[in-house]
Each structure stands twice: as C-alpha cells, then as structure tokens.
Amino acid sequence: MMLVLLSATTLALVAGAPWVLPAAAGEKNLQPPENIEVYITDDNFTLKWNSRIETVENVTFSAVYQTPEVDDWMKLPGCQHIVVNKCHFSPLSSDVYEEVKLQIRAEKGNSSSWSEVYSFIPFEEAQIGPPKVHLEAEDKAITIHISPGTVDNVMWSLDVSAFTYSLVMWKNSSNVEERIETVHPGDKIYKLSPETTYCLKVRAKLLLYNKNGSYSPVYCINTTAENKLPPPENLEISADNENYILKWDYAYVNATFQVQWFHGFLKIIRGTNLHKWQQIPNCEHIKTTYCIFPRKRLSKGIYYLRVQASNGNSTSFWSEEKKLNTGIYIVIPPPVISMKSINDSLRVYASAAEGSVKQPYPLIYEIIFWENSSNVERKFLKEKNDFTIDNLQPLTVYCVKGRAHFVGEQLNKSSILSNTVCEKTKPGNSYKIWAIAGICIAGVFILFTMYVMKTLLRCFNYVFFPSLKPPCNIDKYLSEQPLKNLLLLTSEEQIERCFIIENTNTNTIMKETNQIDEDHKKYNSQTSQDSGNYSNEDESESKTSEELQQDFV
C-alpha cells in the first residue's frame, strides 16, 4: 500500500513540474536568426533573415507577430516551418498605419530562443509595384489603360485617387526614349505617326508621400493606317456671360459634327470610364464648326470635350480632348456704378448688372475717379462694393468708372470698364463753417463800424456843439438846483451868470467870518429873486462887492 502511494506521489510531482525542452545540450547548437528585414511591394510582404546554422540539415524557421490590437503573439501565416531564409505573407490588418512586431526562431526537434523583436509600420516600408497596362491603337493616337498591380489593394486603398503615372515612350525602331509624360488612366497619346510601332513603360507615383513605383514591363503596339476622314483639330473654348462656345478647325466640307463632354474627376477613378462620355444637347449632327451650350449645364469643376466628324458612312476618330476649367472661363461683367452725394463726400455703390449670372468668387473693384473739370485720374482698389470717397471739394462735379477683378492662385480675370457716372457734391460741413465764420466777421465789422461812427459823432458834437455846463470851480457856488434847470425856468431868454471872486487877505479876523457868511447868504437870496436882466445884476454885483470890501476893512 505504501509503495503504491509513493509511486503515485512521484508521478504527481513529475506531472506538476514545468515543461522543459528536451536535449538542452542541443539548444546550444541552435542560434536565433539575425538581421531581420521586411520588404513590401503593394500587398506583397516578404520577410528575410540570416542564420548561423544554415549548414545544419533539417532546420526550419517559424515566425510570430504581435499588433497593438492583440497582446498575445500569434503565428505568422505563411511563415511556419520554413526551410529557407525568407517567407511571404499578406497584410495582417486593414490598418496599414499601425505598428507590427515580428520574432523568428530556428527549429530542429528542439527550438532556439526567439530573435530580437523587429517592428515596422507597413505603409512606411511599402513600395509601389508596377502597374498593369493595356493599349488601344488609332492611326495617330494610342489610348492607354492603366490599373494598379494588385486588385483590391489594401495598402493603397485610401490613396488610389492620388496616384499619377509617368510614361516613357519611344519608337520601336529607335532605342532613344522620345517622350516622357504624365498621364491618367484612359488618356490618349496624340501626334503619332500612322502604321508605326511604339513602345512604352509606365510607373506610378504617390507625390504626397514622395513614393515612386517600379516601371511596368515594356509594351509595344502598332498604330493603324491613316483614316480617310481626319478628326477635327485646334479646339478652342471661349465664353460669354451665359454660354460656352467651342470652336474647331476642319478642312473638309459637307461634314457633320457631334460634341461630347466628360467629367474630369472620373479620370482618377479606378476602372474604365469610357462609357461616361455624354452628348452635349444641340451639338449633335451640326454642320457648323462651333457649338454653343449654356454655362449652367456644367457646374463648377473640370471637364473634357471632344469632337467627331462624320460624312455619310465615314466617321473620324475623336479629336484631341480639350480641357475645360469652368473657373478659368468665368466672365466677369462690368459693375453698375451709382453715386450719392453726402456733404463733401461721395458714396459709391458697385453692383452686378441686372440679369447677369451671380459670381461665386469674391471680387475686387478698381475705381477710377477724377474731377470733371480736370483730366487727372485717381485709382484705388476696394474689396467692398459700398464705400465712401471723403475730403472732396464742395459743389464740385466728380466722375467715376470702374471694373471688377477676380484674383486667384491660378487665375486672374477682369471685366471691361463700366459706364461713367458723374455727381455734384453738396456744400458740406466746411461750407457751413465758412458761412458761420463770415457771419461772425461781418458782425464784428458792423460793431466796429458803429463804434467808430459813434466816436466821430461825439468828436463832431464836441467841436460844433460844446456842452453848456460851467467849470467845476464855479458850479460849486451855484444853488442846489442845476444851472440848466434855472435856465429853463424863464421863457423870455436864457442868461448866463458870471461872478468874480477876488482873493482876500488871509489875515482876516475869525470873528468876521460869520458876518461874511450871513451877508453871502443874503446876497444869494437876493440873486435868486432877480428878474435876470443884466442891469440889475451889475448893480447887485457892484453893491455886493462894495459891501464885502467894507466888511473886510
């Protein structure tokens, strides 16, 4: 019983111990791979490495990978138990911008340790492979159809529309590369010779990421014999405010024409788009060498136009395609200028002509401005269609005309000059200021004139009509009633009273002073009752003088 339990315990310990690779001594002979590299062309991945045990027979290699989405190491499909130093695999994820990690080990019964981790981002390592090319020949042109080297390409799925293709072409009879052009799928190579063999090769470019692909194999094709009915030539496009006009040259008479258009963005979409050409209405089976169609039929963008000639049962090849950029062929009508006088300024309005097509582009207005009586012009640019010209002369006629400009990165267009509009400025604030100043000056002048006249009148009156007021040393002896009032009391005549006052001896006796005052008052009383004739006055004066002398004696 004890023996059974011991055996069971020993078995359990062996089973619970961690698993160890057998033949540890053999592991030392297996070194992990080195110098791991990944090469990517389109969706084709190639993993390469070096190994020190290449002379050992029956050694295989296996690889594992890890992505940010999965923490565990996964077996790399296509790279398990490989007997050579490289393997091929496909994209591990649709996200070609995420990092991928790889490890490799050698195997021969036992396994080596894993190599160092090699990490890479697929899109950064990827190279563009050679495109597929299909050619179609005409007498003087070759149509080239280009498609990516891998169908449903994962690596370039987001950038397929950004590819451009570089073509190198030469005559087969000469090894000199004659032409190098940038083409799109479905483009035609024109100006070739009939019944001549041409060879070409194409490679793709992704300019946004500075990636240049590999050239395709060389393709050769023979152009056909010259067609009896040549295609139209020298296509030219012009436009007016409402229509596009397509013109071309054609030497043969009695021919009819048809015109088709093709949207430019379809050229960069994968696949053939030859069936996307559309007929332009009113430009089918026409006998004129021009076609007129409305601008509103084509929205803003890039288009291609082509023309074909027919004569009975004969039909020409299509002409060279003419590129139509609606932005280049915009027609800017002249603006309608109007003005309004505001004081000493002019308010200018520039608007579109009635019935014209509304422009989807911002316009700049060039204004030419001059005084009507002068030929000197002033020019300035305005981004707004409503602006004011200030600091003008009042009551002056000014004239304005202008044109509209569109300035873009690849296009500059201008309208013709508008009609001339003239307007007379109003008096303005400066005129009012001068008027007020003139009134003030006139008022000051009138006041000054009145003052001068009053002064002259006073001088005149002083000279010719002097004042009747007596001197102040006499006036103080007069009665309280003014002399002029006394003179007005009598109606018979006005008399002037005169007094002579003599200086007396200062050595008078103070006691006689009172007597003199009384006599003087008496004299005044008598004088005020006098009739006013000169005889009485003289007598009174004599008497008074005698009395005064006696008193002083």
TrEMBL record:
Ranges of biased composition (kind: Polar residues): 524-535
The keyword Oxidoreductase belongs to this UniProt entry's keyword annotation: no
GO BP terms in the entry: positive regulation of metabolic process; response to virus
Sequence ranges assigned to domain Fibronectin type-III in this UniProt record: 30-115, 127-212, 229-316, 331-410
Superkingdom field: Eukaryota
Family: Belongs to the type II cytokine receptor family.
Name of the protein in its database record: Interferon alpha/beta receptor 1
Gene3D superfamilies attached to this UniProt entry: Immunoglobulins (2.60.40.10)
Gene name tied to this protein: IFNAR1
Keyword rRNA processing set for record: no
Positions of transmembrane segments: 433-453
Major localization listed first in the record, in broad terms: membrane
GO MF: cytokine binding; type I interferon receptor activity
Native organism: Marmota himalayana (Himalayan marmot)
Pfam families to which the protein is assigned, alphabetical: Interfer-bind, Tissue_fac
One GO cellular component term noted in the UniProt record for this chain: lysosome
Region span, Disordered: 515-553
